[in-house]
Amino acid sequence: MAGRREILTTRQMRALEGTAINSASVTGAALMERAGAGVVTEVLTFWPEYAQQPGRAVILCGPGNNGGDGYVIARQLASCGWQIRLAALAPPVTPDARAAAAGWIGTVAALDDIGPEDFPPGTLCIDALFGTGLTRPLPDECAAPLRLAAACGCPIVAVDILSGLCADSGRVLGGLDLPAVALTVSFQRARLGHLLAQGGELSGALRLVDIGLDSWMKGVDGPALLAGPQPALAKRAGHKYDHGHALILGGGSGQGGAARLTARAALRVGAGLVTLACPPDALAENAARLDAVMLRPVPDRAGLERLLEDRRFNALALGPALGLQRARDLVPVALASQRAVLLDADALTAFADAPGTLFSALHPGVVLTPHGGEFARLFPDLARQFVAPAPTGPAFSRLDAVRQAAARAGCTVLLKGPDTVIATPGGEARIAAAVGEAAAPWLATAGSGDVLSGIIAGLLARGFPPLDAAATGAWLHAEAARDFGPGLIAEDLPGRLPSVLRMLGC
User: Fold this and answer.
1) 21-65 pLDDT tens trace
2) How many CA atoms lie within 13 A of 495 on its CB side?
3) Fewer C-beta within 10 Å: the chain N or C terminus?
4) Cβ–Cβ contacts within 10 Å for residue 234, how many?
5) Residue 57 pairs with which residues in a beta bridge?
6) Is 369 helix (H, G, I), strand (E, B) or coil?
7) Considering only CA atoms, which of 199, 187, 190, 204 is closest in space to residue 125?
8) Which residues, including other chains, have CB under 8 Å from residue 48's CB and lie 6 or more apart?
């Protein structure tokens, strides 16, 4: 999705299409024709063998414009010599879909006529039932042929989005059991449902077709953006202090591994200096494991206050294996310093019994990086909403939850997961999705979150604003995991950052 960073809701995409059509420069029928042609092109590109030898497809059409796309796809594939079995839920109900259906000269079966004999090996199943327009659970008569195709080992291609997924949250409406698709072909921009929740697991490879709407993108209000690298990642010339000094607060003896991971990551991502501050009894342990990272003893609150008299410390990270009592003592001092601060792990859990106490001390220079459990401790009402059953759409999403959490906390919030979501108090949002072809399952290992904290802290020290530090850090974190691959453990991640930065020309 290079160059296409905006991620749209259903409402935003409809507004984009409506603006284009109302301008009289394009018709709905023309957009449908472009969409269908784009799906055919992407299918032939994804399975190049079909460009040499036409295949067989079962195309499932709904009554709306998604179904209209299906009729266009059927006509174009048939013209390429494909064998087409087209089945419709009901006659088309929109003018553009009716026109597309009129262009199909083959037979139209009912959905319940589709059986195992329609899915011999090598058959594609093309889902053009509902796409992004569905706001209720997928009827079983529609889900049945999708499940049958999967059971027969036939790849599924979703037109716009897998029918049954909420396009605004990625959640399966009604909690149905839906099969994963091999390929999703959507139009102009990705939708939230392609990346979030079950949508990230079920959408397969995502391809975006340009149907000519870019001229009107500037009128789209407040889309989330896909996280990615930035030109500022390249270090400029200068003294080490020109690139910031990150202070990582560590825990007691025998608890230093997490903070060391954080410190190494901050240094690898380009902070000019990194200091790990720990209780005096942990100095020897950390000194034995660290060289380029400096060490300072910080026994208590007063010790941190003295250390922060040195204004060259411009970013702090607290949380990984810090200890709950130590977090309660040190977090208020860190926040009162008005520096850039990252809070994770114990620095969040320590305030779970009274999150308002924490929120009252936060400021716009802070980044919170909870995983799902930590988020639920600080924002239990929001967490309940995005895990509760979703009977209708648009369903409450992780993005909705994080935007509300950021507004409540008054700072940037990053909710970890394969579909990492970041938002500011003003509602700006980024999604760092390690799903589909960009999946990084190797990050599901102890300590990887501590490394993410260090990457973000290092970028904060380098002067990145909180949202950019969090979003770019999350992207780098996943990219480092993808660069390493299977067998990854958290210790490998900081050492993989140079390879990623080199790839970016940094």
Assistant:
1) 999 889 999 999 999 999 999 999 999 999 899 999 999 999 999
2) 6
3) C
4) 12
5) 84, 124
6) coil
7) 204
8) none
Mark 424-461 as b/e (b = at least 16 C-beta within 10 Å).
bbeebbbbbbbbbebbbebbebebbbbbbbbbbbbbbb
Pair 100, 159: CB distance under 8 Å: no
Express each pLDDT in 77-122 by its tens digit: 999 999 999 999 999 999 999 999 999 999 999 999 999 999 999 9
Rounded distance, CA 374 to CA 158, Å?
35
Query: Other C-beta atoms within 10 Å of 189: how many?
Result: 23
Q: Per DSSP, what are the bridge partners of residue 366?
A: 341
Chain CA centroid to CA 209, Å: 20
pTM over 0.90: yes
Comparing CA positions, the residue from 471, 481, 474, 476 lying closest to residue 440 is 481
How big is the chain by its Cα radius of gyration, in Å? 25
Question: How far, in Å, are 276, 348, 471 from residue 323 at the CA level?
Answer: 15, 11, 27
Residue 490 neighbours by CB under 8 Å, 6+ apart:
261, 445, 446, 447, 448, 450, 451
